[in-house]
Design brief:
The complex is a heterodimer.
Chain A (H helix, E strand, L loop, with lengths): L9 H11 L10 H4 L12 H10 L7 H4 L7 H9 L3 H11 L3 H7 L6 H4 L11 H15 L14 E5 L3 H12 L3 E5 L8 H4 L8 H14 L2 E3 L10 H6 L2 E6 L4 E3 L12 E3 H10 L17 E5 L3 H12 L4 E5 L11 H9 L3 E3 L2 E8 L5 E14 L5 E5 L5 E4 L2 E4 L3 E3 L2 H5 L25 E3 L2 H4 L4 H20 L2
Parallel strand pairs in A: 1-2, 1-4, 2-3, 4-16, 6-14, 7-8, 7-14, 8-9
Antiparallel strand pairs in A: 5-15, 10-11, 11-12, 11-13
Helix pairs in contact in A: 3-5, 3-9, 5-6, 5-9, 6-9, 7-9, 10-19, 14-15
Chain B lengths: L1 E8 L4 E7 L1 H6 L5 E5 L7 E9 L4 E7 L3 H7 L6 E2 L1 E6 L10 E7 L2 H14 L3 E8 L8 H7 L2 E6 L6 E2 L2 H10 L6 E5 L2 H11 L6 E4 L15 E4 L2 E4 H4 L2 E3 L5 H8 L3 H12 L6
Parallel strand pairs in B: 8-9, 8-12, 9-10, 10-11, 12-13
Antiparallel strand pairs in B: 1-2, 1-6, 2-5, 3-4, 3-7, 4-5, 13-16, 14-15
The chains are: A alpha/beta, B alpha/beta.
């Protein structure tokens, strides 16, 4: 910090100081060390660093950052509290609008949201809003004392929520604060949805998710696990039992396979299965935990999104000597966050761009041993706006692999729509909503998150949960 | 949390368990299954519901001790609890009055075919059942099957009880006798189901099998349980567990069931020597 603040006049010096303090880095585990463990990669800010970073915020009168946030976090306010050293107060501000700040501080794509619109980013680097959010939320959790949220008097109205993922948890938090009697029905044995089965420990420690879920329980949210809406009970049965509104936030929930010959060979996983085994079932701790996972030496992950990055980095930690990303376009088109790609590269992941599998080769026991790939070139932009990959004839070649993870997206899980009469879906099976409120074709039934939009981000699902909660409140309170 | 009411060995390797699960007991239909997880570190295993009592709110399962989880399960006592039970899952069996049906059950598969025989009988079918095991001591549910069947044939591979030979040989005899057989349900080890399908296929007798694929979430999310049916990939958990046996790729099923053999052996060894603390 010695190289800054060499202004001539005192006033100018102060001004320059404000502008030139660089965005504070977050210390991280060394890549060589971290590929052998599942501990979180970044360590988070110290109190000193957090204050330095918070002071970079110029406290805009009309903060553009908030507009970039799907849940309208009062960003300048919470940052001001950190700058003043009031860390608990900062957490309280965050929680007013965000029920899962420790999660968002870690997994939100801030570079496309709040930090993208931060005014400091116009000339230099934006304020590290995500890192500060993480700091405040962690500070509160580690302090052991929770700021208690204001909860309205119980109004006796029952609301059911299908799915304890980011959308459902957010909707539940908002509704319980408004006085509703909220029950979340979760299919798996643990609450959290993608936060527990999908995102790995090294990116989002599960203790953090548990703490955030516990916070909701403390507010009065009831959570019924092992409860598959559509199988254990249907939505119509919930209405019969006295629930007055239902929010569906069950996620997209079904893996896409590519219909490539040999795709059912042993050792070929969907990313959903690979990550669920490792994260939810803790297969990386087998045999201490009972769920096994194939610990491949040569692992190919098909796809270029965050889920692909999570899978390939998990493979490394499970002992892969060669971990590859196979993507049919180029790095520019990859949907993964830059930070994730950067981390994967640091850890030694190989990136095979403009490449796609056309056939899997197996041995006589049915295990995958090789993957025939074809090279691609980029043609005209397709409907997604990205240049579409075109196979180059005769460019096929074989890569040796013993494990493959297919991470090319998800489709709608049909269980809820198929068991709920009159619930309209589109041709892809996603639930159709009338507007931002999430209202479906059925009165009293709202939906949000991946089951409406298809695979998206945690924060967008949370935003949808928030809007639906507001709409449910308007519906049930007659406003 | 589900309280165990009974956990009793039917044979050396096969155990019957009754536990509390009121919602599942009310909901379940023949052919459906549950996912069970014993404790925090446990794996999720699918088990077919053999019976249920909606009034008492109980569910019955029958399992074979094949590895660590089932061994640990067999050591639990009445009054102990299962941490997680999820269900009912999968599609119920398509039951109608087909006419004359044959229910074939092998080994622990007899437990799975039993609720089908009950439902088929109730629907007005003439139910002929063929059940078998390797040896007499491993045979289960003979009395129960007798009660719901118009005729029951029992066989053992080693001839220690009943007909000396495989269930498929008995089925072949039934077909050869010239009677009209409208439908066959066959549940048991993969090789048995394959042979049964080989026997019925030339005669064009519709044969339904119930598959025991490896599963994790069992709600269509992971694809661990994928099988090939009529050349198309299906998920056993949400598209099944029952499929047209003449369309199933049994080789693929059998291969995929071996995915974790080595790991499971390791876990089971550790469990048996007490090194895992369970």
């Amino acid at each position: 910090m010695k190289n800054i603040g060499v202004g001539v006049m005192e006033t100018k010096e102060t001004k320059e100081k404000k502008e030139k303090v660089p965005r504070q880095k977050m210390p991280e585990q060394d890549p060589k060390v971290r590929i052998h463990n599942f501990n979180e990669v970044p360590f988070g800010y110290s109190e000193e660093t957090a204050i330095i970073e918070a002071k970079r915020c110029i406290q805009c009168k009309k903060p553009a950052c908030i507009e970039g946030c799907p849940v309208d976090v009062k960003i300048p306010q919470f940052i001001k509290q950190i700058a003043d050293g009031n860390f608990m107060e900062a957490a309280k501000v965050l929680k007013e609008t965000n029920s899962l700040p420790a999660v968002c501080g870690r997994v939100c794509p801030q570079e496309d949201q709040c930090e993208k619109t931060c005014i400091l980013g116009k000339k230099g680097e934006p304020v590290a809003i995500g890192r500060l959010e993480r700091f405040a939320a962690d500070y509160e959790r580690n302090s052991g004392s929770f700021t208690v949220q204001d909860v309205a008097k119980p109004n006796g109205k029952k609301v059911a929520i299908a799915g304890a993922g980011p959308a459902g948890l957010t909707a539940a938090g908002d509704l319980v604060k408004l006085g509703y009697d909220v029950t979340i029905f979760e299919a798996l044995h643990k609450a959290g949805g993608v936060l527990v089965y999908g995102i790995p420990e090294f990116r989002l420690p599960k203790a953090i998710v548990e703490a955030e879920v516990e916070g909701l329980r403390r507010l009065g949210v009831k959570i019924e696990t092992n409860f598959v809406i559509g199988r254990t009970k249907t939505i119509d049965e919930l209405f019969e039992e006295g629930f007055e509104a239902v929010f569906i936030g069950v996620g997209a929930g079904a893996p896409v396979f590519m219909n490539v010959p040999g795709e059912n060979l042993i050792g070929i996983y969907s990313a959903n299965e690979y990550l669920t085994r490792s994260n939810l079932m803790k297969a990386y701790l087998f045999p201490e935990y009972d769920t096994p996972i194939v610990r491949g030496k040569k692992v190919a992950v098909i796809g270029g999104g965050n889920v692909a990055m999570d899978s390939v980095r998990t493979a490394l930690r499970l002992g892969a000597e060669k971990a590859m990303i196979i993507y049919r376009r180029t790095e520019v088109e990859m949907p993964a966050r830059i930070e994730e790609v950067h981390h994967a590269k640091e850890e030694g992941v190989e990136f095979l761009m403009l490449t796609a599998p056309v056939e899997y080769i197996g041995n006589k026991e049915g295990w995958v041993t090789g993957m025939k790939c074809i090279k691609m070139e980029l043609g005209e932009p397709d409907e997604s706006g990205r240049r579409s990959p075109i196979p180059i004839k005769g460019s096929e070649y074989v890569i040796d692999v013993d494990t493959v993870v297919v991470a090319v997206g998800t489709v709608a899980n049909p269980i809820v729509p198929a068991t709920t009469k009159g619930l309209e879906t589109n041709r892809k099976g996603y639930i159709v909503t009338k507007d931002e409120s999430g209202l479906t074709s059925r009165q009293g039934i709202y939906a949000g998150g991946d089951i409406v939009t298809g695979s998206a981000t945690v924060i967008l699902a949370m935003g949808a949960g928030r809007k639906a909660a507001k709409a449910i409140h308007e519906y049930l309170s007659g406003n | 949390m589900n309280k165990i009411l009974e956990n009793r060995k039917l044979s050396e390797q096969v155990v019957k368990m009754v536990f509390e699960a009121p919602v599942i007991a009310q909901k379940r239909k023949a052919g459906q299954f549950i996912i069970l997880k014993i404790d925090e570190k446990g794996e999720r295993i699918p088990l077919t519901i053999v019976d249920s009592d909606a009034q008492k709110g109980t569910v019955t399962i029958i399992y074979q001790i094949v590895g660590k989880t089932t061994a640990q399960l067999s050591q639990l006592k009445a009054g102990d609890v299962l941490q997680d039970v999820q269900g009912p899952l999968g599609n119920p069996t398509h039951i109608e009055n087909f006419g004359r049906v044959i229910c074939v059950g092998g080994g622990v598969g007899v437990g799975v075919v039993y609720p089908l025989a009950v439902a088929l009988k109730k629907a007005g079918n003439e139910v002929i059942s063929i059940i078998g095991s390797r040896t007499k001591d491993l045979l289960i549910l003979e009395e129960e099957m007798k009660q719901v069947s118009d005729r029951l044939v029992v066989c053992t591979d080693d001839g220690s009880y009943g007909f000396h030979g495989f269930v498929s040989a008995v089925l072949q005899q039934e077909i050869d006798s010239g009677q009209k057989i409208d439908h066959v349900f066959a549940i048991g080890p993969v090789p048995m189901m394959k042979v049964i399908c080989d026997v019925t296929k030339p005669h064009g007798i519709k044969t339904v099998v119930s598959l025991n694929s490896i599963m994790v979430d069992a709600t269509g999310m992971c694809g661990a349980c994928r099988v090939s049916v009529g050349g198309k990939t299906k998920f056993t958990c949400v598209d099944g567990p029952e499929f047209d046996g003449h369309e199933v790729d049994f080789k693929l099923l059998s291969d995929r069931l071996k995915t974790y053999c080595e790991a499971e052996r390791e876990a089971y060894e550790k469990h048996r020597c007490g090194c895992d603390g369970n």
